[in-house]
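Sequence only, no structure available. Ideas?
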Amino acid sequence: MQTSIAERLNLRSLNLASLTTPVVFIAAIFIFWLVSPEHRFTDPRNLAAIAKLTPDLGVVALGIGILMICGEFDLSIASILPLCSYIFTQLLIAGVNPFLAFILVLPIGAAFGFLNGVLVVLTRLPSFIITLSTMMFWRGVLYVVSGLMPISILRYVPSDSAFAHMLTGQVAGIPLQFLWLLFLAVILGIMLHYSKFGNWIFATGSHREAALAMGVPVSWVKIICFMIVGALCAFSAVMQSARLGSFAATQGIGFELRAIAAVVVGGTSLMGGVGSMVGIVLGVFIIQIIDNGLILSGVPVFGVNTFIGIAIIFFVILNNMTNRQFASE
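Reply:
I predicted one. Tokens follow.
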């Protein structure tokens, strides 16, 4: 009986994503193909650029989506990501093999997430406030230790090295960043939609008290979701550093809001308990498509966020209307 309740919440989330997000995804591609000069939006080179750049945000957004389904937020990704990149860079400078450094950075990122989760659970303060505070704290630490100076890693990870190819190479013309995003989405999607822990996530985000009554370890569910976000930040940090060939203290700035925007566009409720992995992935690409398509269409870069803001409002209203319709059934 307990499991069936969570499974119904899970299935409802899949239905919501299937109703709106794929249609908007296809419509966005068609519209920007139509309005871009000489239909350059669908030029293979432009599509390849989208496939290379989207995973930087997309990998992190996978974790943010899971966390939002659980009913929490994490703004600290904007600092955890560059901090993990800096730690990875310092490990390389210390002579650590890039593959080993990559493996070491992942649990470090998870540890940052663990700290966020513990603070949220123990203080019972809104995660928005807690992670805003940790974002500012870690950003200050990073700026002090790095001196805001970029650090090249090409000496340790050449662009033609096996490690760089593993994260940023190509297979049959398809960027590996794109394949990594899909791989992680499949793994996390299976966990979210087809595991007991995934049911716990939906139950926790939908109704905390009911989840506790069902025997769900709500506190640990939240902490683990924060840890997933931290580990994915570390993964994205290394992948982005390998693509750029350097560390920069400005990596990840703005990701916290764009990740939330992508997840909301993908059909995830701001109130928790509703969302799907398919929707999250499509939401990430919709945001990138809007970004890329507007620039190709001649919209100034600084004006792109205006249209993304309008899109977020539209999707929040649409999702709320759809959620109310399902709740009344």
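The chain has one domain: 2-328.
Hope that gets you unstuck.
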